[in-house]
Design brief:
133 residues; Dna Ligase, domain 1; five-stranded antiparallel β-sheet; three-stranded antiparallel β-sheet; 26% helix; Ribosomal_uS8_sf
Amino acid sequence: MVNDSISDMLTRLRNAICAQHKVVQVPLTNINKNILKVLQKEGYIKNFEILFERKSGYLLVSLKYNSLNQDKPCLSVLKKISRPGLRMYVRTKKIPKVLGGTGIAIISTSKGVMTGSIARNLGIGGEILCYIW
């Protein structure tokens, strides 16, 4: 059993990208599903689907690669910020811009999981889950 499902998912995605896999299997949790929805909406992954096997389920994520250079993935860096031992919370004014707006910060708010720019526009803060660029 994994204590931090977000770190596990990010590590699986990172390893699949390094190995240039087309798809990767990730454990099914609500937070993982919501993070993948944000990644799909932002164009970092193609899509994902929910599959059930016996009592447990998993997410099958289709990775997206650059259309010009098939070796270059759309996801290059996945950095976990908040962790179980040290949660990182921010107010609206302190939400960081990742790489000057090139990357995204994924934030868990009271309104759900969203990017940092959307949370900033809505005027709500939350827990910074990870940075992606």
